[in-house]
Amino acid sequence: MITVNPDGKIMVRRCLVTLRPFRLFVLGIGFFTLCFLMTSLGGQFSARRLGDSPFTIRTEVMGGPESRGVLRKMSDLLELMVKRMDALARLENGSELHRAGGDLHFPADRMPPGAGLMERIQAIAQNVSDIAVKVDQILRHSLLLHSKVSEGRRDQCEAPSDPKFPDCSGKVEWMRARWTSDPCYAFFGVDGTECSFLIYLSEVEWFCPPLPWRNQTAAQRAPKPLPKVQAVFRSNLSHLLDLMGSGKESLIFMKKRTKRLTAQWALAARRLAQKLGATQRDQKQILVHIGFLTEESGDVFSPRVLKGGPLGEMVQWADILTALYVLGHGLRVTVSLKELQSNLGVPPGRGSCPLTMPLPFDLIYTDYHGLQQMKQHMGLSFKKYRCRIRVIDTFGTEPAYNHEEYATLHGYRTNWGYWNLNPKQFMTMFPHTPDNSFMGFVSEELNETEKRLIKGGKASNMAVVYGKEASIWKGKEKFLGILNKYMEIHGTVYYESQRPPEVPAFVKNHGLLPQPEFQQLLRKAKLFIGFGFPYEGPAPLEAIANGCIFLQSRFSPPHSSLNHEFFRGKPTSREVFSQHPYAENFIGKPHVWTVDYNNSEEFEAAIKAIMRTQVDPYLPYEYTCEGMLERIHAYIQHQDFCIAPGPALPEAHAPQSPFVLAPNATHLEWARNTSLAPGAWPPAHALRAWLAVPGRACTDTCLDHGLICEPSFFPFLNSQDAFLKLQVPCDSTESEMNHLYPAFAQPGQECYLQKEPLLFSCAGSNTKYRRLCPCRDFRKGQVALCQGCL
Q1: Which of 113, 129, 262, 373 has its CA 20 to 30 A from that of 61?
Q2: Quick one: which H or E segment has residue 732?
Q3: pLDDT value, residue 657
Q4: Rounded Cα–Cα distance for residues 188 and 347 (Å)
């Protein structure tokens, strides 16, 4: 052990005490120097961008040997100061340890004398002062040089008068007044000069023509597209679970669900691969941004996962992620704004500027929260790339609400609409809005052995109530009392310590159950009963798949944004006639019973009939893993919204529509001897056109004939010839923006054509109009796809 004599110890201790003011002085000098450098260099050079900006005339000021030497000397001195402070910190820490334990000793010969340190600090301070003068001289010289060079280029940096760029001069004026409003402009090299404005507006944005003298030096070549890679089905989901992240209860729930269904996804992938055969599938690069889980949107779902909150959205997102991954596409998942900005290439600032690079993703799946975040941070790139976005939208967005100008003029504007997207870019949980695309989710599929076991283990008098929140049970005592006469009632209502008072004492409440235990409860129950809320959730399908009969209430009048608070503000006018319209319309009896709960006799009669009814577990194909894979595969292969839509109204000399009147003279069909429209999807030969009765929407008109309304077929019908072939006399024909057109108005014998392609809509009706409706067939159990769509 190295030791020193007692006198040395005392000298060291005194020296340490004496050095504390010096350490504070050194820190002050360091802080002052850092502030000076940040202000002088950071402010002047980053604002002026004299040396390193690709958008201003280059100078040699910051590249000269003199300036480089000065800056290097400043760096060396700062580094020396840091080392001195570090040494002092270690000495002070050592002194504290020395006082704490007398057996620790330090070599006295390593202790610098106080006087020498003071001289070194004074020398550093003097050097910093000299450097400050030198930096000031360099800046003055560089500004003078910059002004001279700019003067020589001024004649080449005037806003051009080019009819191809009519907004150029106006944008330059805006930049003069507002270029400091967002730091992103300085990031791209804007420094307040005319040249920087024009370079930015021509090379970063696209409002001005390229400057001729920039062609060879600054023109950026478009990156070469990556070689196409074929997508291959995946069955191992371990990497997907890593991609989904952690740290939120919602993500934990989603990962558990994905892991539990791994075997079913693998089996579905094998089946679909056999069905598609040798079909070539290009691998897509896909970003999935779950906006409602970001902290910026409030993330109200995660804290409620374990407290009975809604899980439908998380069920759907977990299945979307899994389907995209199993199909073999490249996937990136973000649940924070910072991750989103990083993956998109958002420049620093407030979101006014375009992205720093071409969008690296072929598709983006997000929700309304994520859509808003992208619009705020992508600048003009949002308009450029929005055709690649797919919006997961539970209740749907109708065209009248989606078109910003039309929605504003006609009272359809809400907090969630007016995005001017192709309505098919909105993807719903159930196929209730044919103007949108049906995304869906999956329910667990049972094999034949499991079905037999469930059927044999059913209790004939056991009911489970649909509703995990106590508020759903409030005011339902009358129905529960009737049901209790015939069945044992079970609930899964969340509570922390005390039983919720809304749940009657005769109800056996299990509390909030994990999904596997909830499934076991459904497998024993005879009846799954809903009390009107929540709307259109996944639980009724899960109950039916586990052999339950679903009993729900009929709404009279139907619920909509006009009369019900839940739907108010949502971008749809759809009328909901029951708690779960899909179950009522696409499944129906004996699995689904819809009755008037306000009629006690009808309600009690339904209970008695259900007790006598035997059903097998049933799951529609479109809600199986294979059905969802098939549907998303078709969308990715065939939906391309980046192709510019054609005009809604045919030109005056356009050929006649390729339709013929059906033999029974009720509707139009695609003529057999007519070539198909190239690139049309669904294929044009699936089209059937019907004239609706007054006041009937196209959605309902097509369903009346066992078909589905197909809005992508509207352009084929948007002509006077289509009316003539349906033997409709048009005394006059006009084209206007109206989501009900094309249509025939009575009285007056007037035919109206659609002027705006984004307003073609299956939804909407008016007693004044008979709408011209495009319908198509659909695959059994897969309403989203026509017979020839796969």
Answers
A1: 129
A2: strand 732-736
A3: 67
A4: 9
* Partners of residue 488 on adjacent β-strands: 462
Token pair recorded at residue 192: 């307040």
Q: Which two tokens mark 36?
A: 């000076």
- Close Cβ partners of 250 (under 8 Å, ≥ 6 residues apart): 293, 299, 301, 302, 305, 314
Q: Which amino acid is at 42?
A: G
Our CA angle for 421, 427, 431, nearest 5°, is 125
Q: Phi, psi at residue 25, to the nearest 5°?
A: -65, -40
d(C-alpha 126, C-alpha 119), whole Å: 11
Q: Are 737 and 759 in contact (CB under 8 A)?
A: yes
14: exposed, middle or buried (C-beta count within 10 Å: 0-12, 13-18, 19+)? exposed
CA 529 and chain centroid, separation: 33
Cα–Cα distance, 75 to 81 (Å, whole number): 10
What confidence tier does 121 reach under pLDDT thresholds 50, 70, 90?
Answer: low
Using alpha carbons, select from 711, 731, 728, 732 the residue that is nearest to residue 776: 711
> Residue-wise over 190-222: b if at least 16 C-beta within 10 A, else e?
bbebbbbbbbbbbbbbebbeebeebeeeeeeee
Task: State both tokens at 441.
Answer: 């989710």
Lowest mean pLDDT among 95-99, 259-263, 397-401, 585-589: 95-99
Of how many residues is the chain composed?
790
Q: In Å, how far are 217, 218, 353, 647, 673 from 203, measured between CA atoms?
A: 12, 9, 12, 30, 50
Q: What is the pLDDT of residue 645?
A: 61
Spatial distance between the Cα atoms of 481 and 477, rounded to a whole number of angstroms: 6
**Backbone phi and psi for residue 61, each to the nearest 5 degrees, phi listed first:** -60, -55
Task: Out of 107-116, 337-346, 548-557, 612-621, pick the least confident.
Answer: 107-116
Alpha carbons 179 and 190: distance in angstroms, whole number? 7
| C-alpha R_g of the chain | 35
pLDDT computed for residue 127 by the predictor: 61
Work out the pLDDT band at 665, boundaries 50, 70, 90.
confident
Question: Quick one: average pLDDT of 665-675?
Answer: 84
User: How many whole angstroms separate alpha carbon 577 and alpha carbon 495?
Assistant: 31
Could you read off the pLDDT of 430-454 as tens digits, one per residue?
A: 999 999 999 999 999 999 999 999 9
197-204: average pLDDT: 94
Percent of the chain at pLDDT > 90 equals 67
Q: How far apart are CA 524 and CA 462, in angstroms?
A: 8
Distance CA 378, CA 356 (A): 10
Write the pLDDT tens digit of every residue in 357-381.
999 999 999 999 999 999 999 999 9
Extents of the domains making up the chain:
165-215, 235-436, 446-617, 657-774
Per-residue confidence (pLDDT) for residue 115, from 0 to 100: 44
Residue 394 has pLDDT above 60, yes or no: yes
Q: SS3 for 322?
A: helix
Question: Alpha carbon 195 to chain centroid distance?
Answer: 37
Beta strands 688-691; 668-670: pairing state: antiparallel
Strand pairing report for 508-509 and 527-530: unpaired
d(CA 403, CA 391): 15
Residue burial 535-555, b: 16+ Cβ < 10 Å; e: rest: bbbbbbbbbbbbbbbbbbbbb
**Please, which pLDDT band fits residue 160 given cuts at 50, 70 and 90?**
confident
CATH T-level assignment (fold) for domain 446-617:
Rossmann fold (3.40.50)
What the block records as the tokens of 534 is 């929540």
The token pair at 226 is 């990556």
The pLDDT of residue 86 is: 52
**Distance from C-alpha of 302 to C-alpha of 514, rounded to nearest angstrom:** 15
